[in-house]
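User: Please run a holo structure prediction.
Assistant: Happy to. Please share the sequence and the ligand.
User: Here you go; the ligand is iron/sulfur cluster.
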Amino acid sequence: MEKVNLKALPPEELKTFMSAQGLPAYRARQLLHWIYEKRATSAEEITEFSQKLRRQLDQVAWIGNLELLDRAVSADGTQKFLFGLDDGDSIESVLIPDEDRLTLCISSQAGCAMGCAFCRTGKGGLRRNLQAYEIVDQVISVGREIAPRRITNIVLMGMGEPLKNLDEVSDALHRMNRLLQISKRRITVSTCGVVPGIEQLAFKAPEVNLAVSLNATTDEVRGRIMPINKRYPIKALLKACRRYPLQKRRRITFEYVMLAGVNDTDEDAYRLTDLLRGIPCKINLIPFNELEGIKYRRPDEGRVLEFQTILVDAGLTAIVRKSKGQDILAACGQLRHREVSRPQVMK
Ligand code: SF4
């Protein structure tokens, strides 16, 4: 009989599984606590269970865990984790310290089909959707590595487009909230602009924050750097944002990766203020991190500040995001790229 991966089971099915083993409901509650909060990686570690019960469990079940393949620590404290999946593929998560926050940026897919021209992950295409437990396990595994420090915020902004894997993503969000006690207010889902997904997210995980990767102010430019724009142009995307049922005192975050000579002119800044008028939002300006094999360049600091000033003068909240972890290839897809480019994956 094939052993059951306890993490792959929806938490509500754990009770049925335990009762099929002749065990009472409270054992399922204990098991959930040990898997998610105490981060047990095998039945053997569940010391609240007797040796006999641990052996019984070990015969029919196992606890699936991501395999830590590589960990890089930047001089600025950013850390990047490369995790191996059961099928031999790999994904990345990035831990970003910022004042009193410790934010973990996690992946929702292995690879990505969206093909954004400035993104390393987009170059490799989609390999597969992650399962809910593989999404949550990035949080559990990094939590184990950095204990006793605790992750305070989660952003789904790593590899993949979360709204293209929404069922597994919303299952993962509920597990993070209910079993890891991470408030939904501290979780952000970032999309490149999948309009139907934005509408569904509002129903499936209504309290999480929404971030939209906008990156251009005309359909011509956005279509060039983000193929999704051909399907859902700026007008349709912003219409979905205007209709998004925001919780009280919440705002949508618009990410704007600044590419020199492509989307960083004064005209772009003025157009951006017009486009976002009336949407409760803040704008993250992200000067592009130059990547080998990708033709775009980073604008100089003066250009970024002038762009920001136009937005701020128009009454918008616009923050320039500092580049973090440049010495450890912290941009999406870079560490995995380095690993798969080697003759052997480092274990
Ligand atoms: S930026 Fe995000 S959505 Fe675009 S290709 Fe990269 S991972 Fe996919």
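Residues 339-347 have pLDDT under 50 and may be disordered.
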